[in-house]
Amino acid sequence: MVRVQVWVGGRLFQAERALLEQHCGFFRGLFRSGMREARAAEVRLGALSPEGFGTALRVLRGERPALADDELLPAVECAAFLQAPALARFLEHSLTAANCGLLCDAAAAFGLRDVLHSAALLVLDAGGRPAELALPEARAYVAALRPSSYVAVTTHTPAPGFLEDASRTLCYLDEQEDAWRTLAALPLEASTLLAGVATLANKLYIVGGVRGASKEVVELGFCYDPQDGSWRRFPSPHQPRYDTTLVGFDGGLYALGGEHRRTPMSSVERYDPAAGRWSFVADLPQPATGVPSAQACGRLFACLWRPADVTTIVEYVAPSDAWLPAAEMRHPQSYGHCMVAHRDSLYVVRNGPSDDFLHCAIDCLNLATGQWTELPGQFVNTKGALFTAVVRGDVVYTVSRLATMLYAIEDGTWRLLRERVGFPRPGSLQTFLLRLPPDILGPVASPLPEL
User: Fold this and answer.
1) What is the dihedral of CA 53, 54, 57, 58, to 10 degrees?
2) What single-letter DSSP state applies at residue 183?
3) For residue 290, which of 315, 264, 272, 308 has the smallest C-alpha distance?
4) Could you give the C-alpha distances from 17 to 1, 5, 30, 75, 79, in angstroms and in order?
5) What is the pLDDT of residues 407-431, one digit of tens each?
6) pLDDT over 70 at 357, yes or no
7) What's phi and psi for 428, nearest 5 deg?
8) pLDDT tier at 215, thresholds 50, 70, 90
9) If pLDDT is split at 50, 70 and 90, which confidence band does 288 have?
10) Are 336 and 325 in contact (CB under 8 A)?
C-alpha cells in the first residue's frame, strides 16, 4: 500500500494514495498530472484546516464520526476543495433540524450544490425561514423551494371506468386550514390494496397491489409527479408480489419481500429510474411481508419478526450487496408494525403490552451505541394511527379516521405536539411526504356518506 504524507496547516497526515485518488478529484488530478508533484511522497495543502482534512480521511476510510457544529464548516470546505463526493454525501446524511441552517450557509459559500439542496429542504421542513440564514445566496435558494406536505392514500382496487368513485384519491393535509384536501385521482388501473408505495426524488411510486378475493397481482406500476399532476406507467418487478414494502433509497426503488400466491418471499428487487429496469439484489434473511423499513444517516434498515418473540433489525449494505444484522430485541407476543428514523435513532412501533392492540409501545434503537430504550408510557393506537408514521423535521406525523396526531421528538422521547383533523375516508392508510406546487389548493376531501 503506497502512502502519502499530507501536510495541512502544519499538521502531518499519513494517507493511502489509492484512497485519495479514488475519492478526491483534487488528488486524482494531481497524481495523474505528470508533473513532479505527482510522484512526490509529500503534499502540502496550506489552504485547508487540519480538522477538516482529518474528518475527510475518517469518512473516506468508512467511519461515521458525529460532528460538532464547529467541525461542520471545515468539513464543508474540505469537501469542496478536495472534490470529495463521499464526504459531501456524509454531510447530507449528518443534517439535523439543529444544524441545517449552518450547513445551508456553508454549502452556499463553498458551492456544494447537493448539500445546499438537502440542507435547504430541511430548513423548510424544520420550520425555519429564509430570513434566518446568514448568506443572501442561501436565503434565495430556500425561498425558491417548497416545504413537504403530509400526504395519504387509503386502500383502493382497480375500478371499472363506468364507476365514478370520488374517494379514489390522494389527499394532503392543509395544516393552516386543518383540513384534508384532494391532491389527485388515482389511475383507474391502480391498486393501493397491499401495494408498495414510496417516494423518490419527489415523485410517488405505486407497485403491485391486488384485485379480487383471489389476490390477483396488479402488474402495472404507476408514478405520480406533483409538479405537473401527471401519472405515468413504469415496469413492474420481475417477480409479481403484493404486500411488498417499497423504499426509495440511494437513487433507486427497492421492493422488499412480499407475497405471491399466498407464499411469503425473501427476494428483493431494485428499480433504476434512469435505466427504467428492475434487477434482483440480495435476499432478505427470511421471507417477510409488510416489512417495516426506515432510513437513518444515509443507511437503509428493515425490521423482521420471528415467531420466537424476536424482532431483528437488519441493514442493507449496497457496496457489498448484503443484509447485515444490526440489532435485535425480545418482547413476548409483540412485533413491529412500523418503523421511523430520526437523526441516528430508529423507532419501532409495536403492539403492546402482550397482545393488547389498543395500545402501542415504542422502542428506540440508537445506532451509535447499539442500545435499546423503551419510550415511557403507552401510546393509544386510535384505530391504526400508529401503524403508519412519517418524520418531518423533528415531528412525527400519524393519522387515523379519528385524528391526525403530531409528536415532537425531544431527547429520544415523543411528546404530543398538536392534534389535527382525522382522515375522512375508511380503509388502511399509507402516508408519505411530497413537495407540492405553490398554487395548488385542492377541494376539501369530504367524508363518505353514512350508510
Assistant:
1) -140
2) E
3) 264
4) 8, 9, 11, 20, 17
5) 999 988 999 999 999 999 888 899 9
6) no
7) -70, 145
8) confident
9) very high
10) no
Position of cell 460532528?
67
Map grid coordinates 363518505 to a residue.
448
Average pLDDT over every residue of 207-234: 92
Q: Quick one: average pLDDT of 332-346?
A: 88
pLDDT of residue 387: 80
Cβ distance 414 to 408 under 8 Å? yes
Q: State the Cα–Cα distance between residues 316 and 302, nearest whole angstrom.
A: 8
CATH code for the domain defined by 148-435: 2.120.10.80
Beta strands at 359-366 and 345-351: parallel, antiparallel or unpaired: antiparallel
> What pLDDT score does 399 carry?
94
Pairing of strands 403-410, 148-154: unpaired
The DSSP secondary structure of 263-312, one letter per residue, reads EEEEEEEEEETTTTEEEEEPPPSS--SS--EEEETTEEEEEEEETTTEEE
CA angle 348/94/196 to nearest 5° reads 45
413: β partners = 410
Higher pLDDT: 353 or 213? It is 213
> Cα–Cα–Cα angle for 324, 330, 335, nearest 5°?
85
Q: How high is the pLDDT of residue 376?
A: 86
Architecture of the domain defined by 3-143:
2-Layer Sandwich (3.30)
Written as nine digits, the cell of 153 is 392514500
pLDDT at 121 over 50: yes
As a whole number of angstroms, the distance between CA 182 and CA 17 comes to 56
Burial of 381 (0-12, 13-18, 19+ CB in 10 A): buried
Give the mean model confidence (pLDDT) for residues 372-395. Answer: 82
Residue-range domain boundaries for the chain:
3-143, 148-435
- Other C-beta atoms closer than 10 Å to the C-beta of 345 total 19
Hey, how many other C-beta atoms are within 10 angstroms of the C-beta on 99? 18
Burial of 117 (0-12, 13-18, 19+ CB in 10 A): middle
Strands 293-296 and 179-185: unpaired
Q: Say whether pLDDT at 62 is over 80.
A: yes
Residue 192 has pLDDT above 90, yes or no: yes
Please say whether the beta carbons of 200 and 172 come within 8 A.
no
Q: Do domains 3-143 and 148-435 have the same CATH topology?
A: no
